[in-house]
Design a protein that fits this description.
- The protein is mostly beta strands and about 180 residues long.
- The protein has no helices and 14 strands.
- A hairpin with a 5-residue loop joins strand 12 and strand 13.
- The protein is globular and about 50 Å long.
């Protein structure tokens, strides 16, 4: 069961809200958004965000499967890559850098619009190394949904080398490697 954060903080960075489109009559949890009627972008207040799964591995790699659940009362759409940041135990922002694309654990599914009906989820895979090389002790991960400026803070409790985080685009399913 994912751990979700109820804590919501203000804007982390300036950004334009993406315009995405979807057909409003399809069924299922989350779908690629074909051309059609306009669906509003999912915003942070309408999303629960947490780790659906934490990932370990060899060669000092760590990561997790981020899950974004539509808790709002309407269908919304997402496209792209989540923004990420690090915080220490006192919630002070730590230096970090986010790299979009393929991670140690998963290939990037591509930057495609998906729509979420109420209760539906999309995922992204985040990865980092934690060998202790210029590592930041990070108690929390800031997660900004694609197309939003507000973020949620979720527990991380790990070292992150160089403050560098790698993340895939959001998708209904991001298959993990073997």
């Amino acid at each position: 069961m994912p751990t979700y954060s109820a804590r919501r903080l203000g804007a982390t960075a300036a950004g334009a809200v993406l315009a995405v489109t979807a057909v409003t009559t399809a069924t299922g949890p989350a779908h690629a958004a074909p051309s059609g009627a306009s669906v509003p972008t999912c915003h942070t207040p309408d999303l629960a965000i947490g780790f659906a799964e934490r990932l370990g591995g060899g060669m000092s790699h760590a990561g997790g499967v981020l899950e974004f659940r539509n808790t709002g009362g309407h269908t919304c759409a997402m496209r792209g890559y989540p923004g990420l940041g690090l915080e220490d135990g006192g919630h002070a922002v730590l230096p970090s850098r986010t790299v979009w694309g393929t991670t140690w654990y998963a290939d990037d599914p591509g930057n495609k619009a998906v729509r979420l009906r109420p209760g539906a989820t999309v995922r992204a895979v985040v990865a980092w190394t934690h060998s202790g090389t210029e590592a930041h002790r990070s108690s929390y991960l800031q997660v900004t949904p694609p197309g939003s400026t507000g973020h949620r803070v979720i527990p991380l409790n790990d070292l992150v080398d160089f403050g560098e985080l790698h993340v895939t685009a959001v998708a209904p399913r991001v298959p993990l490697r073997g």
